[in-house]
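Anyone up for a design puzzle?
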């Protein structure tokens, strides 16, 4: 019999209530005191002949995902989307028994996905990136962690020992002045006034496409846009010019939705402009463009953090290298300067 502290910080009780040769039981707790109380209760029940061995958990991974969603996932902003992604991932894994999932099991599955060896789902066909794998791992870990907190999963998180994959950061692309002019001109000529205005809003506020596209008239007042329902959950207020506000409401009411879905119209025009972008950056290129030009023109990183709504300054620091002062320091502070 033993009570030990695990790497995760929880305490694991490992006992054989019926003595040597009897059923071995392990259970984890947030505190050592909880573990001791549980151990004493099990031993007392065994002494009285009332101890009943726990039933083996026969739930499948899909059952856990559904239970996680019903108890917690539905409260998340994109809970349904997260649930659907998890269920899709579960099917790729063959919907294993939850108690059969181990770090080694998942590592082998991940390796197959990285190589593109899984052909059972069109959505996930072909090799995937390390970043996608890390997201999948984080979401699956979260399912077990939440069920443990709720007392719906006994034992440790089986994925706690799986490490995230390391990969090289991809440089964030942004449009230069000529590309911005070309894109806005093409959007204007395309006939999609919605796509033109949404793109303009993204360029002058640094908003995500979905944030701008889903704006309501009530969110724009006194040359200020209030972004709510954001990814971080924080409300952001960003000023705009009076001329842009007038253009937005030229043919639109001051209340209700302002724009129709127009992202595909935007990407069609972007493709026609033959602007070369790394894969996966089309949706955020306008946001990156705002942030990059903001810093290149001497903007403050902390101010940019607030405008973009980043929860962590590390996200904003991706643009630090574009600062004029940052570049000048490379010239004035290199080791050969003193030898000149």
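Challenge accepted. My sequence:
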């Amino acid at each position: 019999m033993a009570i030990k502290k695990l790497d995760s910080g929880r305490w694991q009780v490992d006992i054989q209530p019926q003595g040597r040769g009897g059923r071995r039981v392990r259970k984890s707790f947030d505190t050592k005191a909880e573990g001791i109380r549980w151990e004493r209760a099990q031993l007392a029940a065994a002494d009285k002949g009332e101890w009943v061995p726990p039933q083996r958990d026969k739930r499948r991974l899909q059952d856990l995902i559904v239970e996680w969603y019903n108890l917690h996932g539905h409260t998340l902003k994109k809970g349904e989307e997260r649930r659907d992604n998890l269920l899709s991932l579960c099917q790729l894994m063959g919907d294993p028994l939850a108690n059969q999932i181990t770090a080694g099991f998942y590592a082998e599955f991940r390796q197959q996905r990285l190589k593109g060896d899984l052909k059972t789902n069109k959505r996930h066909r072909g090799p995937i990136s390390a970043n996608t794998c890390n997201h999948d791992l984080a979401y699956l870990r979260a399912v077990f962690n939440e069920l443990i907190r709720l007392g719906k999963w006994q034992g440790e998180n089986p994925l706690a020992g799986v490490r995230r994959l390391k990969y090289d950061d991809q440089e964030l692309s942004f449009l230069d002045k000529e590309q911005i002019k070309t894109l806005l001109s093409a959007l204007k000529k395309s006939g999609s006034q919605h796509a033109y205005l949404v793109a303009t809003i993204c360029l002058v506020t640094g908003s995500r496409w979905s944030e701008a596209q889903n704006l309501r008239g009530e969110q724009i007042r006194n040359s200020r846009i209030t972004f709510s329902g954001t990814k971080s959950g924080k409300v952001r207020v960003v000023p705009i010019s009076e001329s842009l506000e007038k253009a937005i409401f030229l043919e639109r009411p001051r209340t209700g939705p302002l724009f129709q879905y127009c992202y595909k119209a935007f990407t069609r025009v972007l493709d026609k402009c033959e602007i070369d972008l790394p894969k996966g950056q089309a949706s955020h290129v306008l946001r990156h463009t705002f942030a990059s030009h903001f810093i290149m023109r001497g903007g403050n990183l902390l101010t940019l953090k607030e405008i973009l709504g980043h929860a962590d300054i590390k996200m904003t620091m991706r643009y630090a290298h574009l600062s004029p002062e940052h570049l000048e320091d490379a010239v004035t502070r290199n080791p050969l300067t003193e030898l000149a």
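A detail worth pointing out: The chain has three domains: 2-47, 61-149, 177-328.
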